[in-house]
Amino acid sequence: MGVRENRTVPRYHVETLGSLGAIPAVIPNQIGGQDALAADGRTFEKIDPATGRTLCRVARSTAADVRLAVDAARKAQPAWAAATAVRRGDILRQIALLMREHRTAIAGFVASETGKSRKDALGETDAAIEMGFFVAGEGRRFYGQTTTSAVANKAAMTVRQPLGVAGLIIAANTPIANVAWKAFPALLCGNAAILKAAEDTPLSAWAFGLLAREAGVPDGVYTTLHGYGEEAGAPLVEHPDVAIVSFTGSSEVGRWIAETTGRRLAKTCLELGGKNPLIVCDDADLANAVTWTLGSAFSNAGQRCAAGSRIIVFEAVYDRFRQMLVEAVRGLKVGTGDTDDYGPVINEGQMKGMLAAVERAKAAGALVLTGGERLTGEAYAGGFFVAPTVLEHAAPADEISRSELFGPITCLYRVKDFEEAIALANDSPFGLTAAIHTRNLNRAMAFVARIQSGVAVVNGGTYGSEPHMPFGGLRQSGNGWREAGTQALDVYSDLKTVYINHNPGQV
Ligand code: NAD
Questions:
Q1: Side-chain-facing half-sphere of 5: CA atoms under 13 Å
Q2: pLDDT at 13
Q3: For 383-397, what is each residue's pLDDT tens digit?
Q4: Is 315 in the pocket of ligand 1 (CB under 6 A)?
Q5: Could you tell me the pLDDT band of residue 465, with boundaries at 50, 70 and 90?
Q6: What values do phi and psi take at 408, rounded to 5?
Q7: Has residue 12 got a pLDDT over 90?
Q8: Mean pLDDT of the chain
Q9: Ligand 1 probe mutation, 250, 251, 347, 350, most atoms within 8 A of CB
Q10: Which of 3.40.309.10, 3.55.40.10, 3.40.50.1860, 1.10.357.10 would CATH assign to domain 276-458?
């Protein structure tokens, strides 16, 4: 719970990032170019998921802080929108360059706040930097359309226009990438952006805010707020001057956000959960399928919206695949080091929730082939480490087959043939990503045509999105928008259709 803090906040500079591990005692908000504690002075504890110990305290924002942020954003936005997209892109490129300069420090923050290895944190940081460079370049490709008119001497075209103030709310799983996926396109399009960081990952969001200020983003144009979802996120969603809410998180919260913004008809982009199928056909390269199943199910401790949590295997190869997979899973190393395969899950509540779901699955008849428990012992003391878990015999209608666990847990399903596999893969409330392993081109193409998902992969994992490619899902995985790629510009801008009548007789 929050406590009152009377500390004044030092003004942080980019040099703060210079020394690895220099984590401020209190992570402030960044509003109107200033570091600030929450208006009522309260903070909350950020726990290190690898040890269970306090890492730092964090500003615990409320509606009062959201109001300050929106006021500052509204004032600053028109001048930002009046700058050319090329100029905005130049400033975003400068953020990306600073991120590259400070990549080890940023990755250090990501590793500290999530418990993932520095190697994984660096990979994530580099992906965030790439997103910065990609979006910055879009400043010079901020295309509309020119077309013909039915009327002579009338030009017809479209241009992009910003929406105003963008409220960005993100999950903790890949924290710096999640910031980059939203902040860069929102800013390029000429909006002022207010990012509500995930309460479990305040450090990398704070570092990004520092670099944005250093790169020349004008005061008020980019804000970072910290705090809990209901206290700091909800007022941002409800604020009448927030023109677009872009949310990455659970389907449950996404549904509430859509209802709330729906009442005031504010644009809303939802990137939600997944229960992603990976099909292993009887003609698959089984060793390759095992490798990709491991990555899909267990990388980032399974905390990916794109995690492979339903492994659908043809009966002809089921027993062999199960044996190979379980053996490989037993060989996975869990820990925070660079040679480990994955680290802890983000907090105690999440850990308890997923382990309880495994218990319920067992009670309903599922069999745990390996894992199914919290890891204990000296190396894991106090941390939220979950053993890599594989189950079988879960019915397609069971809770564990339909709801997302967001942890290192996956289920095996036995199917007769391609028809049964595709039917089971599509039998889900979600539709984010999907993969198939086969050597048969016709099967692969039939899968691509018939799978109901936002992303379809042949002979690979259910994860692995690239900055220039759109990402998003069907059904309860989202509401139709795509992030990343040039499609992200459609989220954060609106079109203006322009007609210009002219008269060649008056030249
Ligand atoms: P969550 O929905 O609990 O929280 C996500 C964010 O929303 C946090 O910042 C939280 O503070 C905020 N929030 C919570 N309640 C809120 C409210 N009432 N109003 C406004 N904001 C609120 O999700 P989580 O458990 O932290 O994250 C995991 C989820 O995110 C999974 O479902 C995962 O699939 C999803 N996710 C989706 C994508 C994607 O691109 N589709 C990417 C990453 C994660």
A1: 24
A2: 62
A3: 999 999 999 999 999
A4: no
A5: confident
A6: -80, 60
A7: no
A8: 96
A9: 250
A10: 3.40.309.10
CATH number of 27-272+481-493: 3.40.605.10
Catalytic residue status for 399 = no
- Does the pLDDT of residue 333 top 90, yes or no? yes
Task: Give CB contacts under 8 A, 24+ apart, made by 152-158.
Answer: 153/501, 153/502, 153/503, 153/504, 154/499, 154/500, 154/501, 154/502, 155/498, 155/499, 155/500, 155/502, 156/497, 156/498, 156/499, 157/497, 157/498, 158/495, 158/496, 158/497, 158/498
Ligand 1 pocket test: which of 173, 174, 482 has the largest number of ligand atoms within 8 Å of its C-beta? 173
Asked about 271 being catalytic, the answer comes back as: yes
Per-residue model confidence (pLDDT) at position 464? 86
pLDDT digits (tens, 9 = 90+) for 93-141: 999 999 999 999 999 999 999 999 999 999 999 999 999 999 999 999 9
Residue ID of nearest Cα to ligand 1 atom 18: 230
Q: How far is the CA of 256 from the centre of ligand 1 (A)?
A: 12
> With 0-12 CB in 10 A as exposed, 13-18 as middle and 19+ as buried, what is 422?
buried
Q: For residue 321, how far is its CA from the centre of ligand 1 (angstroms)?
A: 34
- Residue whose CA is at the smallest distance from ligand 1 atom 39: 271
Is the pTM value of this prediction over 0.90?
A: yes
Q: Which of 56, 189, 269, 305 is catalytic?
A: 305
DSSP 8: P
CATH 3.40.605.10 in the chain is located at 27-272+481-493
Tokens of 154: 């009338």
Share of the chain above pLDDT 70, in %: 96
Q: Is 273 helix (H, G, I), strand (E, B) or coil?
A: coil
pLDDT of residue 3: 40
Q: Where do the CATH 3.40.309.10 domains begin and end in the chain?
A: 276-458
Strands 165-169 and 242-248, how do they pair? parallel
Tell me which residue has its CA closest to atom 42 in ligand 1: 305
The Cα–Cα gap between 179 and 206 comes to 10
Distances (CA, A) of 15 to 28, 62, 437: 16, 29, 48
